[in-house]
Each structure stands twice: as structure tokens, then as C-alpha cells.
Amino acid sequence: MNWNTCFRQIHRWLSVAFTAAVTVNIIAVLQEKSTIWVGLLALLPLRLLMLTGLYLFLLPYAARWCGRWE
Predict the structure, then answer these.
(1) What is the model's pLDDT at position 70?
(2) Which of 8, 34, 45, 68 could form a disulfide with 18 if both were Cys (CB 3.0 to 4.6 A apart)?
(3) Where would you find the membrane-spanning parts of this chain (predicted)?
(4) Residue 69, H or E segment
């Protein structure tokens, strides 16, 4: 498996985890059972999404800079 394919797959699954965490957070707020850890639940997948998204965003520029695309 290619590293790029692996990062894309991880990014997709992190988006599913982030969506689930936000949904849990909204349900907890609506039921007025929100605690600090529920609010922070979405931050871990969000940070990982940011890192993998930045990698995927910069990938074409890095390939062009290294001379793979001309």
C-alpha cells in the first residue's frame, strides 16, 4: 500500500470519527448532560484531521518541488 493511499484512508476514517464525536457532543448539549470530556471529545480527531489534511494539501507542491511533475 502506498503512503499517500494510507494517509487518504486515515483522513477519511478520521472524518467519520470527528462527525460521530460532534454528534455525541450535540446530543449531550441538547440533553443538558454535557461535561468537559464530551466537549473535548472532538478535538483529537480534529487535530489529526488537520495534520493529515495539511499533508495531503502539500503533497502536490512537494512533488513539484522535488521535480516529479514538470
Answers:
(1) 46
(2) 45
(3) 12-30, 36-58
(4) none
Amino acid sitting at position 19: T
Rounded distance between C-alpha atoms, residue 45 and residue 25, angstroms = 13
User: What gap in Å lies between CA 6 and CA 56, rounded to an integer?
Assistant: 11
Q: Kindly report the three-state secondary structure assignment for every residue of 25-65.
A: HHHHHHCCCCCHHHHHCCHHHHHHHHHHHHHHHHHHHHHHH
Please tell me the distance from the alpha carbon of residue 35 to that of residue 56, in angstroms, as a whole number: 34
Written as nine digits, the cell of 3 is: 503512503
Average pLDDT per consecutive 10 residues, the chain (70 residues; last block may be shorter): 87 96 91 82 92 92 71
C-alpha dist (Å) from residue 21 to 26, 35, 40, 56, 63: 9, 13, 9, 23, 34
